[in-house]
Structures are given as C-alpha cells and as structure tokens.
Specification:
The structure is a single chain. The chain is of the alpha+beta class. It contains three helices and six strands; from the N terminus they run βββααβββα. It has helices spanning 24-32, 34-40, 77-89, and strands at 2-3, 6-7, 9-16, 45-50, 57-62, 67-71. It has a four-stranded mixed β-sheet, covered by helices on one side. Strands 1-2 form a two-stranded antiparallel ribbon. This is Large ribosomal subunit protein mL43. Residues 18-91 form the Ribosomal protein/NADH dehydrogenase domain. Its main location: mitochondrion. InterPro entries: Ribosomal_mL43, Ribosomal_mL43/mS25/NADH_DH, Thioredoxin-like_sf.
Length: 119
C-alpha cells in the first residue's frame, strides 16, 4: 500500500526448495505468475533464494525496517499470488491491540453511549 504516494514494500524475498513437494506451488508460481508481478510492480525488488530442505515462504521487507514472513507450503500458485499481493498492499506496521473498542482523544465525562441506557 502506498503511504503518501510511496509504496511501503521495498523487497519481496521468495524462498523455496527445488526438490521438496511442499514447494510445488511456489515453483509453479515462479514460472507463471512471478514475471507478471515483477512487470506490474517495477518499484518492488524481488529476490528468489534457494533453501534446500526447507518449507517455502514469502518475506516482505518494508521501508520502516519491519519484516513480515508468510509460510506458503502446499499452496496453489493463485494462493501464493494472493499472499504476495497482500504483502505488497500492507503498510508493514505492527499490529496494535486496543484495550477498548472506543478510541478518542477527548473521552466523555458522562461515559460512552450504549443501547442499554434507560431514561
């Protein structure tokens, strides 16, 4: 995803095994879908690395120095492409768990409104 017009995903690392059965889908992805992904996203640096005996994964390296790793073992090429586009579209921020559903700068003195309020 672009933040202020700048794509946040800087590098996409595709790690696979040329022998293992769990890498069958990512090998097909590299033959069919990866060249089109590179052509559609010229701002993205795509690196493939061979790691024998390991399950395949996609690693996204973002401009804010965060990394996200997605395991793609036993996935079809379409599912691998879906995960790659999800990595491209995300901002790379850490997920922050909120304590409440209601977040505001100026909390109400009277409390939050609910449907259970009786007058």
């Amino acid at each position: 995803m672009a933040l202020r017009g700048v794509w946040q995903l800087q590098k996409l690392v595709v790690s696979y095994c040329n022998w293992g059965g769990s890498s069958r889908g990512i090998r097909a992805f590299m033959e069919s879908e990866l060249p089109a992904l590179k052509q559609k996203n010229p701002q993205l640096e795509v690196v493939t690395e061979l790691s024998r005996g390991q399950h395949p994964y996609l690693k996204g390296i973002y401009r804010n120095r965060n990394e996200r790793v997605v395991c793609v073992k036993n996935m079809d090429p379409e599912e691998v492409l879906l995960n790659a586009t999800r990595l491209r579209n995300s901002l790379g921020r850490k997920v922050v768990k909120r304590r409440t559903r209601h977040v505001t700068k100026h909390p109400s003195v009277q409390g939050t409104w609910t449907t259970a309020v009786k007058f």
